[in-house]
Amino acid sequence: MRKDSREFLNALLETPSVSGFEQAIQRVVKKRASKYADSIDVDVHGNLIACLNPKGSLKVMLAGHCDQIGMMITHIDEKGYVYFKQVGGLDPSVIPGTRVLIQGAKGPVPGVVGQKPIHLKSQSERGQKNEMKKMWIDIGAKDGKEAKALVDVGDVATFALGVVDHGKHIISSPGCDDRVGVFVVMEALRLVSQAIKGRKTFPVALYAVSTVQEELGLRGARTAAYGIDPAAGIAVDVTHATDNPGADAKQVGTVKLGLGPTIAKGANINPVLEELIKTTAKKKKIDFQPLGAPGATGTDANALQITRRGVAAALIGIPNRYMHTQIEMVDLRDLEAAAKLIAESVLAMDAKLTFIPS
Questions:
Q1: How far apart are CA 101 and CA 108, in angstroms?
Q2: d(Cα 302, Cα 307) in Å, to the nearest integer?
Q3: Burial status of residue 283 (CB atoms within 10 A of its CB: 0-12, 13-18, 19 or more)
Q4: Is 146 annotated as catalytic?
Q5: Selected catalytic residue, list 22, 214, 274, 344
Q6: Can you tell me the distance from the alpha carbon of 215 to that of 317, in angstroms, rounded to the nearest whole number?
Q7: Domains of the chain from N-terminus onward
Q8: Which of 333, 325, 355 shows the shortest CA–CA distance to 92?
Q9: What does the pLDDT look like over 22-79, one tens digit per residue?
């Protein structure tokens, strides 16, 4: 991976962006996208919209959501312990013992998630499921006064952020869902921008969007797509990799790290756009993995498809192990392949292209 691209990816993964609190990461995206877009706008929800070639007659939107799951502080007791509720789909079974970072008004506050130690649990308690209401965040405060000087009710927290390299191609980090999607979208913007330099005409008005609040119901993509009103939209999100002992390929399909992004097929996906992307992949010799999506996907592709009178939607997936945990794992080669695939697909479009199935 290019040095500047890897630096951008790391910056995304190391910036906190709990759903509804994405301002910091959008500044990272803006700095990068400004090099390749003709214009950049931020809407009232916080979506960052980078537009290339706005005079193009065919509007195409790329969407990757920048928000991540996290926690919101709801109570601080007299002893200085901090209580929270989930923002997005947190799994209670992976939280105890986790290092977290609370985004306080005076700066980040490190803490750890505690719960009653197993040694002190009764036999009946040991058989119970973990519950977030029985957990707390310990920031090392001596009492409530000290804690409240650092943390306020309504502050949000993430898992402790950081990128770990595993060999040459694989990384792990909290929040790969879906900072890697934002990375792919902005890399595709870069590739298209560089490819059309010197062209007198290019039919596509490309909108690369870092969407917000996907983890709370695809909220950012809905409003961004309504405002842009694209003919076609390609969402990029993570998808469950099944090349590990905890996954069942019979349930979600065979998806492996390092074999390229997935291309979804199903009711949420426009068949014309899907075929264009697959044909491009084969023509450009870009590896991909087919993925069946029988219903509405839980991604921005769903919001795109049903915006206004309808948008031709496609979904590109980045294989991801251990989704919604502190150690989400992806392969850098899949990210690069996805960006190239999307860019080449956009470059293959012409002004007469219709996405109406026949």
A1: 6
A2: 9
A3: exposed
A4: no
A5: 214
A6: 16
A7: 3-68+174-347 (3.40.630.10), 70-159 (2.40.30.40)
A8: 325
A9: 999 999 999 999 999 999 999 999 999 999 999 999 999 999 999 999 999 999 999 9
